Protein 1
Amino acid sequence: MQFKVKADCGHAPRPVLGEPCGHCVIRGIGICHSLGDFDLERLRKLIRIVNIEPGHTVIEEGAAAEYLFNVVTGSLRIFRLLADGRRQITGFLFPGDFLGLVFNDRHVYGAEAVQATTLCQFSRRGLVDLLPEIPPLEHRLLQDATNELTAAQDQILLLGRKTAKERVASFLQLLEHRAGNADKDKVVVDIPMTRADIADYLGLTTETVSRTLTSLKNAKIIQLTEPTRIEILRPGEIARLASAN
Amino acid sequence: MQFKVKADCGHAPRPVLGEPCGHCVIRGIGICHSLGDFDLERLRKLIRIVNIEPGHTVIEEGAAAEYLFNVVTGSLRIFRLLADGRRQITGFLFPGDFLGLVFNDRHVYGAEAVQATTLCQFSRRGLVDLLPEIPPLEHRLLQDATNELTAAQDQILLLGRKTAKERVASFLQLLEHRAGNADKDKVVVDIPMTRADIADYLGLTTETVSRTLTSLKNAKIIQLTEPTRIEILRPGEIARLASAN
DNA sequence: CGGTTCATTGATTCGCGTCAATGCAGGTGG
DNA sequence: CCACCTGCATTGACGCGAATCAATGAACCG
């Protein structure tokens, strides 16, 4: 029988992290993966585990960048705001993803928890000081930055040139691949974020996202049992609609 | 009196590059800037100077990434295509800018010359091999990647949430800052790219770009003498319209 | 049980795209 | 030298896809 969380907690139980990073659930995928035991021990001196409630702020846009993070469990939304409140979500982060720009002393975007989320928090200064001494770390950060850059360009193509239907299909495809369930006949995908989050990620409105999902449902390409769970009945059709090239 | 180029050349004279990189016009701003004389000499063994005619291809999307580049003079457009030919320009590159992703063995975007352009071409493999031996180089590449990432997010915000007028104003502001003429009363900006390039960069059509420029002209915010030259009469108004935050 | 948040659906509006025509500059060949 | 072509920018008429405005329903919660 599963351990029952206290009611006032309001979210799933957190994984018990082993005190040494060696037992951490993202040891194999975080930036720490690039380190041997000796260097890991040095990094460990900079870190603290923090838990964030759903909807709460991790990073305030424009604030001094004191800390950087690795997502351990849960998910975050990264966004920018215009003066009148228009919001654009530039990405979602999941376990293993790195959050923050090492060389910027101010954060250029905001970050909030989508779900209850556990983060591994570093002192940015400490990390910067460590970089020259641990070349594999800088190497890993460059690899991460390259991947993010490629993802950002995918998003630029989507926002600049794709239709609403193509955007939604691309988004479903993204979640599908993230679930590691590509090339199956049928895929069940969890949607932790709201329609408003999806809309602000795809440069649309909640209404358009909802209507587009409904039309995909009517076309028997997806199944919408609950709003937070989508079954992709025909992944090939989603891929075609996404205009992936 | 200026040296006259041969007519069949069809473009402005190229700067005479000193044989050693030390005399190169972008020595102070390219990735080579991060190197001392000894390491520069090692990098120099990997390079070749290449000239590209206007409109010609530098990188084919999806091709094997044999070479990387530094822009020496001129300008490039970086773009992605959808299967049906829709194009999204993800950025323009200018002297000093780095072109290519060091760790990708395939190019994920295309690149073409906007104007006659001179490039400093590296062997990618050679550069990768050099990285572990020259930490400042990797450091510099990470800094560049961070800046590009920030620029990409600006673009995502623009494409996802800004109106046509705001996009065009943002673009003018970008050129204005690039010209290093910020905070002047009046700024003259050269536009080397066509309206189609601007449209594909801003996620619009040539007609909308043209109409928006005309409306800015009618509002006495800019002056359009030639299509390739814009005078910004009221930079403050452009900044306001750009919804910069 | 009333209040709040979120998703869905419908009616209507509007910003920008599409289609089409014109003008202008530069290049080419007779 | 001029007629013709081609590429690019501009402008106008019209249509459409997605936004806006509005209402309803479902889930959750104190």
Note: Residues 205 and 215 of chain B are 15 Å apart (CA to CA).
Protein 2
Amino acid sequence: MTYLDAAQFLGDPFEVARKNILGAILATDIGGKRTSGMITEVEVYIGGSDKASHTYGYRKTPRVMSQYERGGRAYVFLVYGIHAQFNVVLGEAGVPDVVLVRSISPVEGADIMLKRRGLARLCPRLCSGPGNVTKALGITTDMNGYDLMGGSEIKLFSNRCDDEIIEARRIGIDYAEEYAYKPWRYYYKNNEYVSKRGN
DNA sequence: CAGCAGATTGACT
DNA sequence: GTCAATCTGCTGC
């Protein structure tokens, strides 16, 4: 497997999300154990202008600073005090665009993922939904800012998937006014590892 | 500095 | 369908 290279995190964030991030293989090597999955569902957050983004208005708080790094790093934060959410940072340094990984389909180490999730059998719930993805892969908030192109426990590998892509509105951001309805969520039509279908 | 809401999930009525 | 769990940072007194 080959890493996504630095250039593949640059350019139009919507195109990058659909062509480079969706379908890629997200992997972790934790305690010598490899777990990975193909990314099946993502959401784009545009820093600065997007009212749903943590960096709306180019806000700069300690937890959000990794969004301003050059593309190819992780932005991990905690929602509701409980669930970690994993994002891929895009763009040149200073541009806080990110892609939230909402679902993956297991590729390697499904047995370890099941154990981390406390499940007995393979099912879509294993790693559908952003909180379930991080739990299954063992991603925690202290991995915020990690390099995804090698040298850290989180890795992002290049991969293609020919399945049809569905566009839909993003989940859980009803407060974001006109940005709440932007069709900036992408998922594979025929993959069962998707958190929510339709709008 | 208190109060509150949030890029969610799972257990229970 | 309803609700608790529990951390970060905003809003407003």
Note: Residues 43, 45, 52-54, 77, 79-83, 85, 87, 100, 102, 129-132, 170-173, 175-176, 195 of chain A lie near DNA strand B (CB under 10 Å from a C1').
